Amino acid sequence: MTSDAIASSFAQYVIESPTAFHAAAVARDQLVAAGFTELSELDAWPTEAGAYVVVRDGAVIAWRLPSGATPTTPFRILGAHTDSPGFRIKPNPAVRVGGWEQLNVEVYGGALLSTWFDRDLRIAGRVVDADGSVRLVSTDAVARIPNLAIHLDRGVNDGKEIDRQRHTLPVVGTDGTAGGTDVLAWLRGRLGEDAVSWDLFLADTQAPARIGIDREFLASGRMDNLTSVHAGLRGIIDAPVDGDHVPVFAAFDHEEIGSSTPSGAGGPFLEDVLGHVQEGLGATRSEAARAFRASWLLSSDAGHLVHPNQPEKHDPTNRPRPGGGPLLKISANQRYMTEAKGEAVWSAACDAAGVSWQPFVNVNTIPGGSTIGPIAATRLGIPTIDIGVGLLSMHSVRELVHVDDLAALHGAVAAFLAG
């Protein structure tokens, strides 16, 4: 696929994935359409060769089991995460102030809060009905977190602390006692009368857009980390049917809040799936351990390009630039898991794809974030490499990527999964 085609496909994926639940479901639907068989964790799984996918809440794992697989066949795993920072709606969400109807929300993850103000927001997530069935929902634009006019705070441009409780509640209507809409009644009307519980979030409604003098950039929400999820999804669909390894695509939820959940990288989901696969191959504990040590996990999560207005925030000799290719993340303190052997594997994948890559390290005075890489590596003992596409404005409601970097990430991930 060309850079333009990849950017267009990714943009559509973002539009269809306002929450982690949607991202996992859309990925599953695309995999099933490509011939993967959806499995339930409540059923016995087949042991024969084939392509399979399983969803757990906001996480999804897919793999191709080759016909020649043995108990010691290694895995090649692309790991990513489906969630992004934002706001979750609290229980008893109705707030009424000064004639306004508002929603009580809780900050989810490390959101760049100032970017969420004065945006047209929708409500999206999952609903559980009285019969136990689960539905995904998404409204049109219904909410807005309002800024305070500069006339009422003359020092706002000199720096203002955002109160995460008082300042971030969105308006959704007029006070129900003044003849407007009662927010709880409205919400239940939109979710359906059978709804008994829900997990709902705010999401930006602005569609991704190509910008720049030569339209070389894509501006979008949730690039951290749907860029990696989309690349892994396309990579596993195109992975060889019968190779000498088992290609795996694993997109976890809850990375932005620490990953320590049943559907997070710190939970048992990937270990459960790989265990099922190895059990079907008749692997002993020793054979399973040998397969893990011969495997590779490519932890793909967005990284940082040099910020043109604050270049001092970046390492003086490793300075990723837009269009220079995806990043190889390295950390002496193992916040990223890449070491020399992993660098060689990544370099070979990029060479096979015909793309360049760029090293990324944090400046010594800023520790930077971490990824699912150290978490999954610690749990499984599988050698791990940390990579990702470079962005501007990470954790903003609207991030920025160079479309050539997005395409290069796709090529490198596909080459890695192909082996």
From TrEMBL:
Stretches for region Disordered: 303-326
Class of enzymatic activity (EC top level): hydrolase
Transmembrane segments: none
GO molecular function, one term: aminopeptidase activity
SUPFAM superfamilies (UniProt xref): Aminopeptidase/glucanase lid domain (SSF101821), Zn-dependent exopeptidases (SSF53187)
Pfam families from the UniProt entry: Peptidase_M18
Keyword Hydrolase carried by entry: yes
Keywords (A to Z) from UniProt: Aminopeptidase, Hydrolase, Metal-binding, Metalloprotease, Protease, Zinc
Protein name: M18 family aminopeptidase
